[in-house]
Write a structure and sequence with these properties.
The structure is a single chain. This protein has 432 residues and is mainly α. The chain is 65% helix and 5% strand. The protein is built from 19 helices and six strands. Strand 1 and strand 2 form a beta hairpin. Helix 4 packs across helix 5 and helix 7 packs parallel to helix 19.
Amino acid sequence: MIPRYSRPRMARIWTEENKFQTWLEVELAALEAMAQHGLVPKEAVAQIREKARFDVQRIEEIEVQTRHDVIAFLTNVAEYVGDEGRYLHYALTSSDILDTANALRLRQAADLLLEDLDLMMAVLKDRALEFKHTVCIGRSHGIHAEPMTFGLKFALWYAEMKRHRERLLRARAVVSVGKFSGAVGTFAHLPPAIEETACALLNLTPAPLATQVIQRDRYAEYFTTLALIGGSLEKIAVEIRHLQRTEVREAEEFFRAGQKGSSAMPHKRNPVLSENITGLSRLLRGNALAAMENMVLWHERDISHSSVERIIAPDSTILLDFMLGRLTGLLKNLLVYPDNMKKNLELTRGLIFSQRLMLELVRKGITREDAYLMVQGPAMRVWQAENLDFPSLIRQDAEIARHLTKEEIDAVFALSEYLKHVDFLFQRVFGD
């Protein structure tokens, strides 16, 4: 991933240094397991652990000749270890190391993403509580529907992120598996006990059954989970973009002193952070599709998945880490305009109370179809004439007056009825 979208902690996981470090951890865990089961001398393992080193530049030099990255790595480590190096990689195949080490790095990445989610959820909760009773219009199809509160938007996003956190924990567990079962997964040269011990040392679960590789449905679940999280971040970003439109302007990205919105128009304040998140989420979805394509390999293994994973593993985790950090900051500093919310709430001159009026008529014994028509007639007149307002028309409507008293009509247009269950909804989401 390009530096522009890379944050240091996540980027470090995908450095060559950390890649080879996890390879070394896996090789040492296998050796330790073999020593515990009497397959290699414990003294040799102790010496290897003490001497084992690697040099990234040297590995790259060797790979130019070998055209095989694992062999280049092993050759370099053996240069430090000496004669005991003959025990390195004993009875193992490259994918025993690669896939088991991949599990370690994907787990490291998931741990950082879980921290990111926790930070975002904390901000969402704070802002939900801040605007718990700030009334705004709810929209469906982009059209004014009925009143709600702005805090409910944040509460909704919080609940969604809570589900994503659970998904990511499951995906983390799904990829946290290792294998030391050899070329086609049959344990032809090492007993299963070696795998169980080595995986325990790495805090991984042994794959119940593998071929030469860990099966890629696990990776597909992991990267699909990242794409799902990205989809929700885009959902939030698109909402902010809509709310920032000049005609709406109920919320707005924070605009720093000295910031420029346009090279041509000095007045511009654009939702550039939200637009950026919208774009990056597309890459996560594309990478998830690539991960699903990787599930299909020839027989017990080919390497068509390998080149793909070299790209999507760092790119997806680095991107999502960046997106979560960016959106968390955006939400924390989001500018909110309750006065504009009130103005927009009144924009349709009372039409937003139409359903409540219809239901009140139904409660009086009128059929739903007849009540709908009684309300729709005045509502359409308000849409067509800017000098009319819905409450006034209803109070002058003789047919409606035959069924509802003045007090009952006044009660129809009370905002409080739309907000009476906000506390209940917050209790459902936050539990406190």
